[in-house]
Amino acid sequence: MSLTKALSKPAGSTAAPSPLSVNGLTVAYQKKPVLRGVTFEINEGELIGVIGPNGAGKSTLMKAALGLIPSIGGEVLVYGKPYKEQRKLIGYVPQRESVDWDFPTNALDVVMMGRYGHLGWFRRPGAKEKAIALECLSKVGMADFADRQISQLSGGQQQRVFLARALAQDAKLYFMDEPFAGVDAATEKAIITLLQELKRQGKTVVVVHHDLATVQDYFDSVLLLNVELQAYGPTEQVFTQERLQQTYGGRLAFLDRSFQVPAADSGKGV
Amino acid sequence: MANIWSMIADPNMQWIFLGCTLLGLSSGVIGSFSYLRKQSLMGDTLAHAALPGICIAFMLTGIKSIGLFLIGAGLAGLIATFGIGYITRHTKLKQDAAMGIVLSSFFGLGIVLLTVIQHGNYGNQAGLDKFLFGQAASMIGSDVITMSIVCIVLLSICTLLFKQFKLISFDPGFARGLGYPVAALEQLMMLLMVVAVVAGIQAVGVVLVAALLITPAVSARYWTNKLSLMVILSGIFGAASGAVGTLFSASVSNLPTGPVTVLAATLMFGISILFGPQRGIVAKRLMRQRAKRRFAVQREISIHDNTKKEAAL
Lengths: 270, 313
What we know:
The complex is a heterodimer.
Chain A: H1 2-8, E1 21-28, E2 33-41, E3 47-51, H2 58-66, E4 73-78, E5 81-82, E6 90-93, H3 107-112, H4 127-139, H5 155-168, E7 173-177, H6 185-200, E8 204-208, H7 215-218, E9 221-226, E10 228-234, H8 235-238, H9 241-248, H10 253-258
Helix pairs in contact in A: 4-5, 5-6
Chain B: H1 2-9, H2 11-36, H3 40-61, H4 66-90, H5 95-118, H6 141-160, H7 162-170, H8 172-178, H9 182-204, H10 209-221, H11 227-251, H12 257-275, H13 281-312
Helix pairs in contact in B: 2-6, 2-9, 2-10, 2-11, 3-4, 3-5, 3-9, 3-10, 4-5, 4-9, 6-9, 7-8, 10-11, 10-12, 11-12
């Protein structure tokens, strides 16, 4: 048992395995791949932004990495093992629109769902789970809304409930699918605080992100995606006008004026 | 009144009463989950699909028993769900159209087979046509025992797997992320729905049995914002409908049990939609009026203040 484990690792590698290493991942819904040969390996303890135009496969990358949709090629390793064996290490925040918020339940109950993976198959969540869920709700500033029916929460508050649920999973690697989409300023601030807090605890967070203006403020590393991997690396190196033009095709003209993106080769001559 | 009491004393009547109540209870419970998963009409499809299954089971064996019918109807339901899945995956048709096609073609086949059986030499085929609209009076002791077993199994599974069923109904993607076998659990829910439908067909009939899956669940949703309570309430509403249906149809001659049961469920739905707290029509109207009055009072005060200020000037 221990021998095969030792053999399966490359000889001489003493470094801890990456939280997420993706090798040649290819996904196709119909004939045309929506993700083609995506390969990258992320560093532990970083906040990583996944950036790309609509239809670039950002959400697909996340879902395939989580095993929610089948891939037609490539592999995904979470801390050196297939994700199936590492589910307890992974936390997930789906897009808010993916569920019906008129479901008969309250905020606390949704957050407790994050504990289900830690409970046995037939065990009901008890006082301990309730305490954890309440703590997670207060971390996103939603403690006062614990008993609130979820349909009576604002969009931003619903997003924060989803974040609290992911926190309750107590994972090491988090995937968040557009958590900033359509939220109010208070929620945006709450999410940023939370991301920083997770980073301080040494967790790794992968975030699908849409707003190019905030990328430099939020993320340590950036993954540029458009069906194929365009670039991956530290934000200051990868988040350049040139690379963004390449990722978004010609559709990024507005960037020239609106945002101060450091050009790759212009230096300080301006 | 004395009439009803004498009926309750009749042991045969007790069986039927128990059977219909259990049926309503199990349909109400599993119906809550299918309603929340927006699969309400799936119950109707399964019920209609069950008819040819039941006919074929009878033609092959020549025996009328719920157990055998359960197998036939279950297989037919399975084929129907696969058919719907196949159509939605491989064509541009949406689920509602696919369900319509499958439902009506299975039902058509069922009616054809039923006619074949009526004209065949089975000897004991009388009563099989009652499956269309149901006849609780035709239930015998062994049927009720089968129903009780079905009910106990269904309730136990829903209790044990409540956590899983809840998560899958709310957020199947997250459930998959946690590693739950979502596809298998969804199939299990579908199977429980088939079981509830088939158990109910004898009493309520193919055409109306879906109402017991949908109506109690929708009614229960009006009274609570808590899933566990909703499931229990839905079970109670279903059981009450079954009980009322049996008593009423037995005391008034020639009234079929199924339709009366469904009408009883509909009556409860009417009460729920009107008087449910928060969601009910009356509650909503009262809330709006209160808000209006409060606003009017506030405006009056501010006008009053303004005039005072102007007067002071």
